[in-house]
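Q: Convert this sequence to C-alpha coordinates.
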Amino acid sequence: YWCFANSKTVFRRMRIEPQVATHKPVVVHANYHQPKQPRMDAVYNRWHLGQAQGLEVFSGEPTTVVPAPELEKNFLHSINDGFVSGGDTRNAIAVLNQGCPVLPSIHGVGVNLHYLAVAECKSGDALCAAARRVAQRTNGREEILFVVAELSDTEALRLMLASAAHAGVTNIVVGAADAGLSDALGDTGTIPVIDVSALLPAHSDNPTARVAEMRWLLLRGLLEAGLAVFVS
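A:
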Protein backbone atom coordinates (compact mmCIF):
# COMPACT_ATOMS: atom_id res chain seq x y z
CA TYR A 1 0.00 0.00 0.00
CA TRP A 2 0.95 3.62 -0.59
CA CYS A 3 -0.54 5.48 2.38
CA PHE A 4 -0.76 8.95 0.82
CA ALA A 5 -0.12 9.98 -2.77
CA ASN A 6 -0.33 13.39 -4.35
CA SER A 7 -2.04 13.04 -7.72
CA LYS A 8 1.13 14.28 -9.43
CA THR A 9 2.91 11.29 -7.87
CA VAL A 10 0.16 8.97 -9.09
CA PHE A 11 0.14 10.15 -12.70
CA ARG A 12 3.86 10.86 -13.08
CA ARG A 13 5.41 8.00 -11.12
CA MET A 14 3.00 5.26 -10.07
CA ARG A 15 1.54 5.11 -13.57
CA ILE A 16 4.90 4.36 -15.24
CA GLU A 17 7.26 2.79 -12.68
CA PRO A 18 7.11 -1.04 -12.48
CA GLN A 19 8.30 -1.20 -8.85
CA VAL A 20 5.12 0.51 -7.64
CA ALA A 21 2.73 -0.82 -10.27
CA THR A 22 1.01 -3.13 -7.77
CA HIS A 23 0.86 -0.63 -4.92
CA LYS A 24 -2.58 0.60 -3.86
CA PRO A 25 -2.86 4.22 -2.68
CA VAL A 26 -4.97 4.63 0.44
CA VAL A 27 -5.50 8.37 -0.15
CA VAL A 28 -4.95 10.35 -3.36
CA HIS A 29 -4.79 14.12 -3.04
CA ALA A 30 -5.92 16.04 -6.15
CA ASN A 31 -6.47 19.47 -4.63
CA TYR A 32 -4.61 21.72 -7.09
CA HIS A 33 -3.82 19.24 -9.86
CA GLN A 34 -6.09 20.22 -12.74
CA PRO A 35 -8.25 19.06 -14.35
CA LYS A 36 -9.45 17.53 -11.08
CA GLN A 37 -12.61 15.64 -11.98
CA PRO A 38 -11.09 13.57 -14.81
CA ARG A 39 -8.15 12.72 -12.53
CA MET A 40 -10.48 11.59 -9.76
CA ASP A 41 -12.42 9.54 -12.31
CA ALA A 42 -9.19 7.92 -13.53
CA VAL A 43 -8.15 6.99 -9.97
CA TYR A 44 -11.63 5.57 -9.34
CA ASN A 45 -11.50 3.54 -12.55
CA ARG A 46 -8.04 2.19 -11.74
CA TRP A 47 -8.47 1.07 -8.15
CA HIS A 48 -12.22 0.90 -7.49
CA LEU A 49 -13.29 -0.60 -10.82
CA GLY A 50 -10.02 -2.50 -11.31
CA GLN A 51 -9.32 -1.11 -14.80
CA ALA A 52 -5.61 -1.80 -15.31
CA GLN A 53 -5.32 1.00 -17.87
CA GLY A 54 -7.47 3.44 -15.91
CA LEU A 55 -4.67 5.99 -15.50
CA GLU A 56 -3.58 5.92 -19.13
CA VAL A 57 -6.02 8.66 -20.06
CA PHE A 58 -3.21 10.88 -18.74
CA SER A 59 -0.39 9.14 -20.61
CA GLY A 60 0.88 12.56 -21.73
CA GLU A 61 1.48 13.71 -18.16
CA PRO A 62 4.93 15.36 -17.79
CA THR A 63 7.42 13.29 -15.80
CA THR A 64 9.60 16.20 -14.69
CA VAL A 65 9.02 19.30 -12.60
CA VAL A 66 7.08 21.95 -14.53
CA PRO A 67 6.68 25.59 -13.38
CA ALA A 68 3.22 26.16 -11.92
CA PRO A 69 2.18 28.88 -14.42
CA GLU A 70 2.91 26.48 -17.27
CA LEU A 71 1.40 23.40 -15.66
CA GLU A 72 -1.78 25.18 -14.56
CA LYS A 73 -1.96 27.73 -17.41
CA ASN A 74 -5.56 26.88 -18.25
CA PHE A 75 -6.70 26.91 -14.63
CA LEU A 76 -4.40 29.32 -12.79
CA HIS A 77 -6.97 31.94 -11.86
CA SER A 78 -9.64 29.42 -11.00
CA ILE A 79 -7.58 27.71 -8.28
CA ASN A 80 -5.31 30.34 -6.77
CA ASP A 81 -7.53 33.41 -6.60
CA GLY A 82 -10.25 33.92 -4.03
CA PHE A 83 -11.00 34.98 -0.49
CA VAL A 84 -8.98 34.19 2.61
CA SER A 85 -10.43 34.91 6.02
CA GLY A 86 -10.00 33.94 9.62
CA GLY A 87 -12.67 33.84 12.28
CA ASP A 88 -11.05 36.78 14.11
CA THR A 89 -11.39 39.14 11.16
CA ARG A 90 -11.31 42.42 13.06
CA ASN A 91 -8.07 41.67 14.92
CA ALA A 92 -6.53 40.16 11.78
CA ILE A 93 -7.03 43.47 9.98
CA ALA A 94 -5.60 45.37 12.96
CA VAL A 95 -2.28 43.50 12.80
CA LEU A 96 -2.13 43.26 9.01
CA ASN A 97 0.44 46.03 8.60
CA GLN A 98 2.60 44.66 11.41
CA GLY A 99 3.04 41.24 9.84
CA CYS A 100 5.58 39.82 7.42
CA PRO A 101 5.33 41.14 3.86
CA VAL A 102 4.08 38.80 1.16
CA LEU A 103 7.07 37.37 -0.70
CA PRO A 104 7.01 37.81 -4.48
CA SER A 105 6.23 34.77 -6.61
CA ILE A 106 9.32 33.12 -8.08
CA HIS A 107 7.25 32.65 -11.24
CA GLY A 108 6.10 36.26 -11.41
CA VAL A 109 2.47 35.44 -10.68
CA GLY A 110 0.79 38.41 -9.04
CA VAL A 111 -1.98 38.15 -6.46
CA ASN A 112 -3.74 41.23 -5.12
CA LEU A 113 -4.85 41.43 -1.50
CA HIS A 114 -8.20 43.05 -0.73
CA TYR A 115 -9.87 43.23 2.64
CA LEU A 116 -13.51 43.80 3.39
CA ALA A 117 -15.14 45.92 6.06
CA VAL A 118 -17.17 43.87 8.52
CA ALA A 119 -20.89 44.67 8.61
CA GLU A 120 -24.07 43.22 10.05
CA CYS A 121 -26.32 41.00 7.94
CA LYS A 122 -28.61 43.01 5.70
CA SER A 123 -32.29 42.98 6.56
CA GLY A 124 -34.03 40.11 4.78
CA ASP A 125 -30.78 38.27 3.95
CA ALA A 126 -31.91 34.73 4.78
CA LEU A 127 -28.55 33.17 3.92
CA CYS A 128 -26.54 35.51 6.14
CA ALA A 129 -29.00 35.10 9.02
CA ALA A 130 -28.88 31.31 8.74
CA ALA A 131 -25.08 31.36 8.59
CA ARG A 132 -24.97 33.50 11.74
CA ARG A 133 -27.17 31.01 13.61
CA VAL A 134 -25.13 28.03 12.44
CA ALA A 135 -21.82 29.72 13.29
CA GLN A 136 -22.91 29.97 16.92
CA ARG A 137 -22.55 26.19 17.14
CA THR A 138 -18.74 26.44 16.92
CA ASN A 139 -18.01 27.74 20.43
CA GLY A 140 -16.96 31.26 19.47
CA ARG A 141 -14.94 30.35 16.35
CA GLU A 142 -17.79 31.48 14.09
CA GLU A 143 -16.86 28.96 11.39
CA ILE A 144 -19.20 27.52 8.79
CA LEU A 145 -18.90 25.12 5.88
CA PHE A 146 -20.75 26.72 2.97
CA VAL A 147 -21.95 24.45 0.17
CA VAL A 148 -23.53 25.77 -3.04
CA ALA A 149 -25.37 22.93 -4.75
CA GLU A 150 -27.59 22.33 -7.76
CA LEU A 151 -30.40 19.84 -8.22
CA SER A 152 -27.98 17.48 -9.99
CA ASP A 153 -25.92 17.38 -6.77
CA THR A 154 -28.79 15.95 -4.71
CA GLU A 155 -27.44 12.43 -4.17
CA ALA A 156 -23.86 13.55 -3.51
CA LEU A 157 -25.08 16.24 -1.11
CA ARG A 158 -27.36 13.81 0.71
CA LEU A 159 -24.38 11.48 1.21
CA MET A 160 -22.19 14.37 2.42
CA LEU A 161 -24.80 15.51 4.94
CA ALA A 162 -25.26 11.97 6.23
CA SER A 163 -21.50 11.64 6.67
CA ALA A 164 -21.36 15.00 8.44
CA ALA A 165 -24.17 13.99 10.79
CA HIS A 166 -22.35 10.75 11.60
CA ALA A 167 -19.22 12.77 12.44
CA GLY A 168 -21.14 15.29 14.53
CA VAL A 169 -20.46 18.18 12.14
CA THR A 170 -23.36 20.64 12.34
CA ASN A 171 -21.93 23.98 11.17
CA ILE A 172 -23.01 23.54 7.54
CA VAL A 173 -25.08 25.92 5.42
CA VAL A 174 -26.35 24.89 1.97
CA GLY A 175 -27.09 27.48 -0.70
CA ALA A 176 -29.54 25.96 -3.19
CA ALA A 177 -28.88 27.10 -6.75
CA ASP A 178 -32.11 25.32 -7.79
CA ALA A 179 -35.40 26.09 -6.09
CA GLY A 180 -36.33 22.40 -5.96
CA LEU A 181 -33.20 21.22 -4.14
CA SER A 182 -34.64 21.50 -0.63
CA ASP A 183 -37.66 19.33 -1.50
CA ALA A 184 -35.41 16.83 -3.29
CA LEU A 185 -33.15 16.51 -0.24
CA GLY A 186 -35.96 16.03 2.23
CA ASP A 187 -35.26 16.35 5.95
CA THR A 188 -31.78 17.82 6.58
CA GLY A 189 -32.19 18.12 10.35
CA THR A 190 -30.50 21.23 11.72
CA ILE A 191 -28.69 21.99 8.44
CA PRO A 192 -30.39 24.95 6.72
CA VAL A 193 -30.93 24.80 2.96
CA ILE A 194 -31.45 28.35 1.69
CA ASP A 195 -32.87 28.99 -1.78
CA VAL A 196 -30.45 31.39 -3.51
CA SER A 197 -31.51 30.57 -7.08
CA ALA A 198 -32.93 34.07 -7.59
CA LEU A 199 -29.39 35.45 -7.18
CA LEU A 200 -27.96 33.53 -10.15
CA PRO A 201 -26.33 36.00 -12.59
CA ALA A 202 -28.43 36.38 -15.72
CA HIS A 203 -25.71 37.46 -18.13
CA SER A 204 -24.18 34.06 -18.87
CA ASP A 205 -25.55 31.11 -20.86
CA ASN A 206 -23.06 28.79 -19.13
CA PRO A 207 -24.82 27.23 -16.09
CA THR A 208 -21.54 26.20 -14.47
CA ALA A 209 -20.10 29.70 -14.80
CA ARG A 210 -23.27 31.24 -13.37
CA VAL A 211 -23.17 29.03 -10.28
CA ALA A 212 -19.44 29.65 -9.78
CA GLU A 213 -19.92 33.42 -10.00
CA MET A 214 -22.82 33.32 -7.57
CA ARG A 215 -20.76 31.24 -5.13
CA TRP A 216 -18.13 33.98 -4.91
CA LEU A 217 -20.73 36.74 -4.56
CA LEU A 218 -22.43 34.89 -1.71
CA LEU A 219 -19.09 34.16 -0.08
CA ARG A 220 -18.24 37.85 -0.09
CA GLY A 221 -21.40 38.61 1.87
CA LEU A 222 -20.63 35.92 4.45
CA LEU A 223 -17.09 37.20 4.92
CA GLU A 224 -18.37 40.75 5.34
CA ALA A 225 -20.53 39.39 8.15
CA GLY A 226 -17.31 38.44 9.97
CA LEU A 227 -17.64 34.67 9.51
CA ALA A 228 -14.84 32.23 8.79
CA VAL A 229 -16.01 30.27 5.77
CA PHE A 230 -14.91 26.97 4.27
CA VAL A 231 -16.37 26.64 0.78
CA SER A 232 -17.34 23.48 -1.07
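The longest helix spans residues 207-224.
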